[in-house]
Amino acid sequence: NADTMIFASRIEEFVKGNQIAIFSKTWCPWCTKVKTMLTAQGKQFQAWELDLDDDGVKVQAKLHEISGQKTVPNIFVNGVHVGGYSDFSFYDTAGLLDELLAKQNLDFDYDLVVIGGGSGGISAAKEAAAAKKKVALCDFVTPSPRGTIWGLGGTCVNVGCIPKKLMHRAAIIRQDMKDAIDFGWKLPGDILDITHDWGTMCKNIQTYISSLNDQYIQQLKDNNVTFYNAKASLLDKHTVRMVDSNGLPREVKARNIIIAVGGRPTHLDLPNAPELCITSDDIFSLKHPPGKTLVIGASYIALECAGFLKGLGYDVTVMVRSILLRGFDQECAKKIENYMTSYGVKFLKECVPTSVAKYTEEDGKQLTWVKGQFNSGDLFEGMFDTVLVAVGRTALTKELNLDSVGIEVNSRNQKILVNEKDQTSIKNVFAIGDVIERPELTPVAIQAGKLLAKRLYKAGTELMDYNNIATTVFTPLEYGCIGLSEEAAIAAHGEDKVEVYHSTFTPLENSLRSWGTEDTNNAFAKLICLKENKEEFVIGLHILSPNAGEITQGFALGVRLRLTKAQFDGLVGIHPTVAEVFTTLKVTKSSGEESTAGGC
Ligand code: FAD
């Protein structure tokens, strides 16, 4: 049955993943003797303590079936069953233990090779190394078409979360400076005279990123993970071929392989677009200020970039093919669009680019000439200093030679297909992070990497739970959410089972603001509840406000624990905060009552 198949595959993984794999019980004196003997000789082993495992009895029964041995310790070396205490100690007393172990070294250079040194890969490599496994990690960054390149740490550190959040912060500071005047600060000169230096910001951000790159290299060293700065592909299910930047090839054999190569921005399928347009790979280290910018795309990455560029003072237009923030709550997406519009970002809705070309002005200034077409058939034409394309990301699987090894990918998006254990169609090859069809977020990749290494090398059983992952979009008005959008909740459960509580309000921070065109009464909170057995379970939480990420992180726990609306109401708020709104939501959408809050 399904149960025994699961135990069989857990046993197989544990045995294959560990050179010396011992099924043991903490109180068993013979098990202790084996472990003490190996420890004294400095030999690496992993023990699966069956008495500490809820399924220990079932695992032992399956083990009996597989090995013919009923008792513990039940020892496997190099994937082969050796026996119990007396069988194993025979090798020791006969001086044959090293010979037995050496067989493995002939077969494999590493217990684990990780391909990709980003959030997921580094996390998995460190966890495996902590289990005393011999681990190698290879990472290689192919320059962007504009020649941008970076160091170890992957997308998040170099061209993702970190520089993005810092630029978002730079833009918010401008708003803070304007607010300062209403709070009584006397700034030297007119606020409009304050200018931003793109070069200084980029230089400082890049210096910080370099320090993070160095830290990652050091962490790998400290954890005894061998680092190869080389591009990898698979020759067979145990052999990784690496080619370094000088073109020098190397082959290594690994018992297990984890693929964590992430993705890169997708380019427009238009002539010259990769050369003339930039992507998020380039913006954070752009050598010159971006100037008048067209952002193509409506993903969170597109809107975040548009937001911070506008906040830094640039003229920004966003070209949107259909809707903003697909997959997110559309009421919140609309509010973001409205806020960004009042903030000065221009939107070209239902419009796609049809051509990009280089244009040189009389004074030699280089511009990009973009033509587009609206759904209505109307044409668009404009000149921009910078065109930033953010129309999605492509998994980097094409050059891994997966096909010939038999690793299946989704033909639609090239993402690697994995089961709930992050295992590919080849048993000893696993995949995590952006390269599989799961939420493309750093903490997801990190957690998946950690849990996978624990399952492989520490007899861990916990699977990555990809549901109810909180996230935040760092647009000028931040948007945090966890759980279902209103549309998804209704689609999943039906309108009559879903109750929505909501409120629009002014964050206290904005209350003295006398400048700007943005509506200060712009914060918005909503709880989406599932009506079940006279209870209302919170299955979606959404907030638009300053620091929405900080708020969402805290409440995410409540949603993951499937708390009820009554439990949210029972929580005493912290006053005055934005977050306290979730303890006082009263107005339901179905009531049609006014949801704008006033007063304290
Ligand atoms: P990556 O971090 O992409 O690492 C993969 C590594 O493998 C890279 O270094 C790559 O060069 C290398 N590699 C690829 N192919 C090979 C090969 N053949 N051989 C050797 N090495 C190879 N997530 C959040 O949680 N919060 C955010 O705010 C956020 N903001 C983002 C903003 C932007 C602009 C972008 C682009 C992404 C953002 N993300 C954010 C997403 C996050 O960065 C990714 O989900 C995360 O980095 C994925 O980690 P990973 O380990 O799967 O891959």
Question: Can you offer a commentary on this structure?
Answer:
This protein is α/β, with parallel strands linked by helices and 600 residues long. The chain is 34% helix and 24% strand. The strands form 6 sheets. Strands 5, 6, 7, 8, 9, 10 and 20 form a 7-stranded mixed sheet that branches. Helix 13 links the parallel strand 13 (316-320) and strand 14. The longest helix is centred in the middle third of the chain and has 25 residues, at 198-222. The mean pLDDT is 94. Bound molecules: flavin-adenine dinucleotide (FAD). Flavin-adenine dinucleotide (FAD) is lined by residues 115-121, 138-141, 154-156, 159-161, 164, 231-232, 260-262, 280, 301, 396, 399-400, 433-435, 440-443, 445.
